[in-house]
Design brief:
The protein is of the alpha/beta class and about 260 residues long. The protein contains 7 helices and 10 strands. The strands form 2 sheets. The protein has a 5-stranded parallel sheet, sandwiched between helices. A hairpin with a 7-residue loop joins strand 8 and strand 9. Helix 2 packs across helix 3. The longest helix is centred in the first third of the chain and has 14 residues. About 40% of the residues are buried.
């Protein structure tokens, strides 16, 4: 019996794969890959059998039960099976379901982390997700649930919403309802990590304006401290302090 290695392929271009991921991929006999992984990754495992088990959103092209069964089947037949997942396997990658299926079958596993699209979007736009002083927490969430409900919250200084591209107008309304100021900065990046990535800046109230530009593309929406452009941050830091009036201070200090 072989074992299965889950590898995070990163959000886009093949050169975002980690060195460990490339080394494990080179040893694979079978690779079960996601829809959004770069075809150029095949160069790392040219002799492996590549099996497309891709799916998009909640409309599964390959059902999860089928993927679980394929992992178990190939692990019984091969020494090394790679499950290549877009982004990072542990971030909205349904990793737990596949780990459970393999554990129940007594098959050993390894997980190799990858670059998730929130990090790729932050790097592409040079917007740190954490900011000293006002960006101490980050939340990663899926905007849309399986039952079609759209969620938004204000639980962190920076909120990153995955899979929000088709619901930007509704997300704008939800953000305002959740307590975000109308002028809260919002950064929208589609196909983060790919050569054709697109980026646009908005405020929470006009997020709907991004819908046409990013239509039909995997989209990450960042709201709050981590969405603020550097020029705005620098301008805020350069604001002069109020002039100090010693006379007023002396008067105020009298009993």
């Amino acid at each position: 019996m072989g074992h299965v290695v889950f590898i995070g392929a990163g959000p886009g271009a093949a050169d975002l794969l980690t060195l460990r991921g490339a080394n494990r991929l080179a040893q694979a006999e079978v690779v079960l890959f996601d829809a959004l992984t770069d075809p150029a990754l095949r160069e790392f495992a040219p002799n492996a059998r590549w099996v497309n088990v891709g799916k998009r959103g909640f409309a599964d092209s390959t059902g999860q039960a089928t993927i679980n069964a394929l992992l178990v089947k190939h692990a019984h037949e091969c020494r090394m099976v790679v499950r290549l997942k877009g982004g990072d396997p542990s971030v909205f990658g349904r990793l737990e379901e596949e780990l459970i299926a393999l554990a129940q079958a007594g098959i050993a596993c390894e997980v190799v982390p990858g670059v998730t699209s929130a990090l790729a979007a932050a790097a592409a736009t040079q917007r740190p997700l954490t900011r000293r002083g006002n960006g101490r927490s980050v939340s990663l969430t899926t905007a849309m649930t399986r039952d079609g409900t759209l969620h938004a919250s204000r639980s962190a200084d920076t909120e990153v919403f995955y899979m929000a591209g088709k619901q930007l107008a509704a997300l704008s309304r939800r953000l305002l309802a959740a307590g975000w100021p109308a002028n809260a900065p919002v950064s929208v990046v589609s196909r983060a990590g790919w050569p054709d990535q697109l980026h646009s800046d908005h405020e929470a109230r006009d997020l709907a304006l991004a819908a046409l530009l990013h239509a039909g593309r995997p989209t990450v929406v960042t709201v709050g401290a981590g969405a603020a452009p550097l020029n705005a941050v620098m301008a805020s830091a350069e604001q002069p302090c109020a002039a100090h009036d010693p006379t007023q201070s002396a008067v105020a200090s009298k009993p």
